[in-house]
Specification:
The protein has about 475 residues and is of the alpha/beta class. The chain has helices at about 20-30, 40-50, 55-70, 75-85, 110-120, 125, 130-140, 155-160, 170-175, 195-220, 225-230, 245-255, 255-270, 280-290, 320-335, 355-360, 365-375, 390-400, 425-435, 455-460, 470-480; strands at about 145, 150-155, 310-315, 340-345, 350, 405-410, 435-440, 465. Helix 4 (about 75-85) packs antiparallel against helix 11 (about 225-230). It is globular.
Amino acid sequence: MSTDGSAVSGAAGTDEVPMISHLTGFVDELRRRGMIVGPSSLIDAAQAMEVLDLLDRRSLREGLATTLISDQMHRRVFDTIFDLWFPLGTGARTAVTDLPRTLDGEIDVETMREMVADMLADDSADADGRLDQMIALIVDRLGRYDSTRGEAFSAYQALSTVNPQTLIARIAAAMAGGGDEDGSGGDRPGTEPLYRRAARARAGELRAAIEAETQRRMAGRNGRERVADYAVPPLPENINFLSAGAQDLAEIRRTIQPLARLLAAKLEIRRRRSRRGAVDVRKTLRASMSTGGVPIELSHRKPRPGRPELVVICDVSGSVAGFSQFTLRLVYALRQQFSKVRVFAFVDTVDEVTDFFDRGADDEDFGASMHRMITTARISTRDGHSDYGNMLRGFVEEYGESLTHRGALLILGDGRTNYHDPHLGALRELTDRARHAYWLNPEAERNWGTSDSAAIEYAEIIEMFECRNATQLGRAIADLLPV
């Protein structure tokens, strides 16, 4: 079926699929992905659809997002699912033009790229649909390939040809009203930071649009459920630390402050509702006089909630660096909940790095602190590979007095020793000194004890918890940290 790029497909409402059923299925998919959508939000979305112009996808998208999203960090997931459930149409779009071609009939890639850059710099090209038509042609002509199951489309194949990142200089020059044929920049128009930032954003939008169009074509071929299995990204709080790329880690970092505020509130409530104080013998004996000297009801002293100390030991080797960095950010966002926070880092040798983080609070300062710590702290003095045994032994010898029965020990790492001696006795001594001791492991529990992992042996001494994503990490910190 052809579409003109402006109308919502019949999937949004046909005789076969009533609108309310389609909306309910869309919400069920959001919930399946981990988004919290209550019954009242579903009712609000249905009422919004009664007044929205269903032929205007942008208004429909924003109306449903307003009523169904409670966390704006979930917007990327929402948009991807929306594109699958409310597509522009099915099949190829009707096009009045084609991509430019050479004299021998091949697609002229360079001319096509120049046209794309000019359209991205021209706001009217988006408004009148020319940019959408171009994106549809790019996917149809450059992303098409023959698979074992017939015709298919690849966003990677189309993006490899267009290469949006290399168009930034051309887009910026076109925005400034000049030209940059070789993309070299210099003093040519468009080199100003304002134009470069805008051009970079347009290039990112082009990439997203090509991916969305590819998903639409594949959904028409394979069904949206199958495409959703690989096209819908996980929620930021459900991204696996160990497999996260740079973009994913940036998404995870944006969850820190909201998560920290929630955890701080929970810790404060737990502190206020903490167990009763010690038994007050004098009051208990006085009260027992009315029962013949039998202390039937115990009297307790008024509890005095205090702020415990926290000692964090984190593995900052390459394999778990993302997990440790995120956890440290979260701990430091919660540092006001503790009387003292001391941080120790290691690769194969442990060193205290508290001073590196006490000064920086915001995201940029924290990143710089992590870099300074990794490059200057004495954390790698042997072979540069994780050595938990040497770390534990060194911590007992140099910093063992930092652990007291007033505080808690938190170890962050995967427990992979690279076949070195795990020194279980040193860990046992540390857990004996601390009032609370926990180990947060970013690996799936099914992988503990495999290959060079000593996690199973360590777990027999210290409570170890799987923390593969921000959701599990937040739950662990909220439930485990002392008050």
